[in-house]
Amino acid sequence: MRIFCAWCCRDGQPGYLGEREPLDNPEPTHGICARHTAQLLEALPSRSFPDAELLIVVRRDNTVLYEQLRRWFAAKSRVKVIVDRRLVDERGHERTRRIRTGTISALGDFTIVRFTPRVPPILDYALSLAPPPSPRTDTTS
């Protein structure tokens, strides 16, 4: 079977991902390419930080930078600053559960991970300004 990225095909791109068994079956099947997987994961809200739009992960050996960033973003409810707690195994590989890949700073001191919030910020702001609903009165007596 030939595998095509369903999203690439939808967008008119070739989207060929390779082949899988049964190899004698000429029918196509669909998957999702790495680029579209990354887009999909970025669009999902974070389960650990449901209200966060931006997560800044600071290296564990840079506590001064962590404290500084934490103070700078303290008033921003949609920005979370945390220390990287991942461990390095005996072979020097970092153990990770991170699904999303972030943007690493030029000096490598922190990583920025973007999330899509559950409630769009403008809607959240509009809802905070809206007056509470008034009690309904029946005028059809």
Keywords:
three-stranded mixed sheet, 141 residues, 2 domains, four-stranded mixed sheet, elongated, single chain, alpha/beta
DSSP helix fraction: 10-25%
The total domain count is 2
Count of distinct strands: 7
Percent range for β-strand residues: 15-25%
Radius of gyration: 23 Å
**Looking at the structure, what is the overall shape?**
elongated
Low-confidence stretches: none
Q: Structural class given helices, strands, pairing?
A: alpha/beta
What does this structure look like?
The protein has two domains: about 1-35, no CATH class; about 55-125, no CATH class. It has four helices and seven strands. By secondary structure, it is of the alpha/beta class. The longest helix has 10 residues, at about 35-45. It has helices at about 5-10, 35-45, 65-70, 120-130, and strands spanning about 1-5, 15-20, 30, 55-60, 80-85, 105, 110-115. The strands form two sheets. It has a four-stranded mixed sheet, covered by helices on one side. Strands 2-1-3 form a three-stranded mixed sheet. A hairpin with a 5-residue loop joins strand 6 and strand 7.
What layout of secondary structure does this protein have?
Layout: E1 2-5, H1 6-10, E2 16-19, E3 28-31, H2 34-43, E4 54-58, H3 63-72, E5 79-83, E6 103-104, E7 110-114, H4 121-129
Parallel strand pairs: 1-3, 4-5
Antiparallel strand pairs: 1-2, 4-7, 6-7
